[in-house]
Amino acid sequence: MNAWLRRIGGYFFASIVLLAGWQLLSMAVGSQALPGPVPALSDFFRLFFSDLLPHAGISAWRVVASMVIGAAIAAPLGLAIGRSPKVDAIAAPMIFLTYPVPKVVFLPVLLVLLGIGNLPKIALITLIVFFQILVTARDAARGIPASAVLSVRSLGATRWQVFRHVVVPASLPDIFTALRISTGTAIAVLFFSETVAGSEGLGYYIIDAWSRIAYSEMFAGIIAMALLGVVLYEFLELAEGRVCRWTRAER
Amino acid sequence: MSAVAIRDLAVTYTGVGRAVHAIAGLDLEVGDGEPIAVIGPSGCGKSTLLLALAGLVRADSGELIVAGEPVVGPRRRTALILQDFGLLPWKTVSHNAALGLEVRGVPVSERRRIVAEALERLGLGEFAEAYPGELSGGMRQRLALARALALDADLLLMDEPLSALDALTREDLQNLLLEIWRQRRHTSVLVTHSIEEAVFLGRRVVVLSPRPGRVAAIVENPGMGEDGYRETPEFLERCVELRRILAAEGAFAQPSLARSAS
Ligand SMILES: Nc1ncnc2c1ncn2[C@@H]1O[C@H](COP(=O)(O)OP(=O)(O)OP(=O)(O)O)[C@@H](O)[C@H]1O
Ligand SMILES: [Mg+2]
Known about the structure:
The complex is a heterodimer of chains A (251) and B (262). In chain A, helix 2 (37-46) packs across helix 10, helix 3 crosses helix 9 and helix 6 packs antiparallel against helix 8. Chain A is globular, with a radius of gyration of 22 Å. Chain A has helices at residues 2-29, 37-46, 48-83, 85-98, 107-114, 118-142, 146-154, 159-196, 202-211, 215-243. Chain A has 251 residues and is mainly α. The longest helix of chain A has 38 residues, at 159-196. Chain B has 2 domains: 32-58 and 69-77 and 154-252, Rossmann fold (3-Layer(aba) Sandwich), CATH 3.40.50.300; 86-152, no CATH class. In chain B, the strands form 2 sheets. Chain B has a 6-stranded mixed β-sheet, with helices on both faces. In chain B, 36% of the residues lie in helices and 24% in strands. Chain B has helices at 46-53, 93-103, 108-121, 137-150, 167-184, 195-201, 233-248, 255-261, and strands at 2-14, 19-31, 35-39, 61-66, 69-70, 78-81, 155-159, 187-191, 204-208, 215-220. In chain B, strand 4 and strand 5 form a beta hairpin. The A-B interface holds A 145, 147-148, 150-158, 161, 165-166, 169-170, 172, 244-246, 249-251 and B 51, 54-56, 74-76, 78-91, 99-100, 103-104, 130-134, 147, 151. Bound molecules: adenosine-5'-triphosphate (ATP) and magnesium ion (MG).
């Protein structure tokens, strides 16, 4: 409980500092395009239920669906690749070739193939999350100490039991870290894809406000998008603490 | 009947570049309930020998028989304890101790009873719900032992199980290992780098040659297991004898230093 209070207090304090900085910056710039936090926040609360929440809901569903699908495919696949030298010999060059390619460049293709609804956005973010988790899971699986695997095998464990008792739990902390890091990329790509096509989601809302020169509304949208990121990140942190309890036992 | 019979064993690793002959022409018999210690220069194939006995490394040629059956894979009552104990940091103490039973499909209630008993016996009862990361080195080692006891192992293979511990804890656990052996009379193969430990815990001490490992000498040590053996002149004599054999085998040679000195 105490830890929770401290955490919320930390967020509160950080918000105050950021808002003060924002205020100073907007006064220094003195442009309509950078309103201060007061009009932005008042629009945020005014439009919260009518506009922001529906758009945020759609954005959240897109990004969460993408991350779940991406991780659900990439984590087992990456672990399997990392544990099997034979598969790795074939898969690793493919990963090395495709991983550095910026996946956003495929957005136009996806738009042509999948229309302008949820599908191309989810596909694009899934693709990005997929590669980040794939690479992390592969590396994590390769880094598992041989002694842990040997001692479990000496107990008579099958391949599947080694996976379940050793490979998966040993890699989970790394996979969670990769997931948390990829929330940043995922939301950036979400914004980009929503501004390019469609008429739903926070990205669309922000760019729409921008085209209407409604700058304080635009910033209300930006605040909503930032909050979406924070909520996702915190959720993952919470889930990690639950699933990887043992990490707290180690210094 | 001998619990372990090894005849003309050869193990080769096909490494990244070239093949490494870890063991070649190794012959050894271990009696039922006999505790032996294995000692030899670094890299001579001691760990490989244990892995082969545990059924985790395939022999290229030769015979490997445990309890009358050729070794083809992990065996139900063989327990292996590695240098870093092979504990899983993500499982609690009791879950770690129960792992062997779980893997073998022993029902939960029975598992609980056996594990509670094993943990109690090794003084870990009150740490059942802790994680290995919360234990001291000596306690982790005892947990690894508890896992082996929970399996009711009749062959205990240990690869430098105490080398990561400080001197006091090590002596404490050497006494514990001896105590457990005196109660259970299991067959035990202990790989160690410590001459005193080998003489304290091995009824016979097997000296391996430099790689590829084979048996270079066997030191008979009939006094092992007697009360207060550590303080007897006989103990010291065995240690001196063993040290001399090891020196003759080149176990103490330090090629890099010798080269730079000349
Ligand atoms: N997985 C492996 N792949 C390739 N070579 C290996 C492998 N494991 C061991 N070796 C080689 O086999 C030889 C014997 O190794 P082993 O680990 O059995 O020696 P050891 O006697 O236990 O050494 P130490 O006393 O240092 O623990 C060494 O030369 C080592 O380089
Ligand atoms: Mg070794």
